[in-house]
Amino acid sequence: MSKTFTSKQADYAITLRAEWIGNDLFLCLFGGDTPHIGTVTTFSSETEKHVQRFPSHDGRFHKDDVLAELLLKPIAAEIPGNCVITAGVHVDHISKEQIEAAFTMTAELAEALKLWLSEHTLAKEPLYK
Question: What is the rounded CA–CA span in Å between residue 56 and residue 72?
C-alpha cells in the first residue's frame, strides 16, 4: 500500500512517497531543482534512531535529516515496525524564504501522512513457529 503527497510553496515543491512494506514504513522525501538522497534516517521503537549523511558536491555533508526528523516526530507512535526515511531536497540558489518553506511544507506533509496512516493501519502480524 502506498501514497504520494506533494506540497508547493516559494516556487518549488517537496514530494513524499510513503510505502508500507509489511509492518515497516519506507518514506522518500525529495524535491526542488535537484532531488537526491542526501540522508537516510532509520527508526524503530525498539532501537535508537540512526542517521547517515552522504557527502555533498563540495565536501560538506547533506543535512536533509533535519526534514526527516520533522516528518518522523508526529508519526513515530503510529509505526508498528521499522521505518526508513530517505531525504534530499535541493533548490538552486536557495533563498531564506525557500529554506523556511521547506520546514513548513515538511510539517504539512507530516500531517497528511499521519492522517493517511491512521486510516490505513496494518492488521496482519507475522506468524512464527
Answer: 23
- Rounded CA separation 58/47 (Å): 33
Q: In this structure, which long-range contacts are made by residues 1-10, counting pairs with CB atoms below 8 Å and at least 24 apart in sequence?
A: 1/120, 3/113, 3/116, 3/120, 5/109, 5/112, 5/113, 5/116, 7/105, 7/106, 7/108, 7/109, 8/105, 9/101, 9/104, 9/105, 10/95, 10/97, 10/98, 10/100, 10/101
Residue 64, C-alpha cell as written in the block: 536533509
Question: Which of 18, 30, 12 is closest to 67 using CA atoms?
Answer: 30
- The pLDDT, as a whole number, for residue 22 is 87
Among 17, 125, 50, 16, residue whose Cα is nearest residue 80: 125
Q: CA torsion angle for 87, 91, 97, 103 (degrees, to 10)?
A: -10
Grid coordinates standing for 106?
A: 515538511
Q: What is the pLDDT of residue 45?
A: 83
Which of the residues in the chain have pLDDT under 70? 122-124
pTM over 0.90: yes
